[in-house]
Amino acid sequence: MSGLARLLASVLLLLPWTVQGSDDAVLIQIGWLLSDPARPPLENIILVVRDGRITDLRDGTDRRDADAGMRQVDLKDKYVVPGFIDLHVHLTTPASPGGELRTVSQSGADLALVALELGQRNLAAGFTTVVDLGTGRRAHDEAIYALRKAIAEGRVTGPRIVVAGSPLSPTGASRTGRYRPAVDAAISPPGVCDGADDCRRVVREQIAAGADIINVYNSGSLNDPHMVQQTFTDEEFAVIIETAHALGRRVIADGHTAAGINAALRAGADIVDTAPWPDDESWRLMRANNTVFVPHLYAFEQVVGDAPESLADGTMHWIPSPIMKRLYDIKNQPYSAERAYREGVALAFGSDTGVIPHGANGGEFAELVRIGLTPAEAIGTATSVAAGALGLERELGTLEVGKVADLVAVNANPLENIRVLEHVRFVMKGGRVVRDER
Ligand SMILES: [Zn+2]
Prior knowledge:
Helices cover 35% and strands 20% of the residues. It is α/β, with parallel strands linked by helices. A hairpin with an 8-residue loop joins strand 1 (26-33) and strand 2 (42-50). This is Amidohydrolase family protein.
């Protein structure tokens, strides 16, 4: 992706976000602050927020006359980190049985209310920004765009949503073709395209509808009995990614097999998602292109469980057994993320909530530490690295003067015990307190 296209992507993405309602000047006293996961933590800090942005960050002993007039928030006994960014959620999908029926019975209005509730669970867990990767159904898209707008305008409380619209796949691959053709046509998988011209049109349609980022399936789904190894042709991938970049949108390549992953990487995908079965060529391409890799370690752990007995229907009790067998095999091989980390590929945070319960996102941190990341690096995957992957590094990802005031507070030092991030006590998003259990 060219420098200009990256810049354009940043500018387009941040437009609707900074206008939402926020408290006036707020002075936050912070005992321990990890303003940037790449730097050492700071102690005894004053952070001032105005109109949703950080306007001052100084030593806690440096008190000034103007401080007295501001609303005070006391986080002196707390450990504060930047608000988390999750690059992979499904806000209209509760992790429960009945998905097939819900897909054909719920309207966009139904799903907007579902997504509001599920989004709030993500936010309460400290995820102030989430990327909704879509489901490929028109009702989902209606719900997500409406909710993104209502949240951005401050009419309802929820996480900042980066919307991928409908994932792209060719006819018959991945999420398409699961129902009778007449049913599929009625619920309209809007991301389906075949051939270069058709795919160029569909990318443009997604962006016209409001997509912030494009999600393209590079292989079949783990849910497919016979998984397609590479969905689109090389030519189709090239057109999809070129069109998205020309319109200032980054591209996530979501899928599993080396053939599909590598084809998407050769075409210039910015982010690779899931990818349990890459090969040596995948690592070479990711390093060469500075691609960010988003694995979902915790989701695999949660869905499969620890005992072979859970193979019948897993711990979630809604995934059929042939698919559980595949997930079980993935879980019991070394994770590709472990290799990615050793290869020097940047890892970013994605929980796949919707497959696992919304609000359980934070379990991914401990899994990232388990495969070798330092706690600070694990926090970086959900803050600075994730912001950079979206082109939002000037807005989000670290706590610095000028940036959006998204922050999370916990009761203990996350660099000593990463699991404390699963027990968030306080969340501020864009200068507004959205959770307070101090
Ligand atoms: Zn997913």
